[in-house]
Amino acid sequence: MGRTDLVHYHFLQSPWSYLGFDRLMEIATRHGVTVRHIPLLPSDIFPATGGAPLNKRHPSRQSYRLLELERWSREFNLPLVLHPRHFPVDDRLAASCVIAARDMEVAVDGLVRTLLAAVWVEELDLADPDVLSMLIGKAGLNATEVLAKAQDRSTEKTLAEDTEAAIALGVFGAPTYVLDGERFWGQDRLDTLDKALSAR
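User: That's the sequence. What structure does it adopt?
Assistant: C-alpha cells below.
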C-alpha cells in the first residue's frame, strides 16, 4: 500500500476550519498520517464554484450559521467569538505565510492553528503584518524569514496554483479534507474521515 495522502483545504477566517482543526490533527496522529495544509481564499473559491460570501447570504442562512457555531463550540468545548472584531479582512498575506512556511519545509501545523485561533478566540487582525509577525513567532517560526518568503512572487504563484488544483478536485468550501482523492466537506464529516482512515 502506498503512502496515504491527507490534504486539509481551509480558509484561515473560517470558523468551521477552526472548530475542526484539533480533531483533524488528533485523527491524523492516531492513524500516523501527515496532514498537508493548503490555505485557500473564499474570494477566489466562491465565485468559481457558485458560493456566496457571508454578507450576501439570506438572513435565514446567516442566523442558522450562528446557531450551529454555538452548538459546535459547546459540543467540543472550544472557545469561539461569534462576531470577532476583525472579520472579515484581507487574509491573502496570512495565507501566503502558511504557504511560505510550508515551502520552507518547516512544520506548519502549529502556525495554522495559531492563525485560526487568532481570529476566532483572540480577535486579532490577520491583515496586519505586525500581528502576523507576532503570531508566526508564537508558532515557533522565524517571522522575518516567513514574511519575506510570503511576499515573494513565487508564493503568490503557488497560491494561485493551489486554488486551481483545489477547484479541479471539486473543493468549494472549507474545511475540505481530501484523503487519497476522496473529498470530505466540513468539520462535521471528520468522523467519516476517521472511519475511512481506519479502513485503510
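The domain at 6-198 is CATH 3.40.30.10 (Glutaredoxin).
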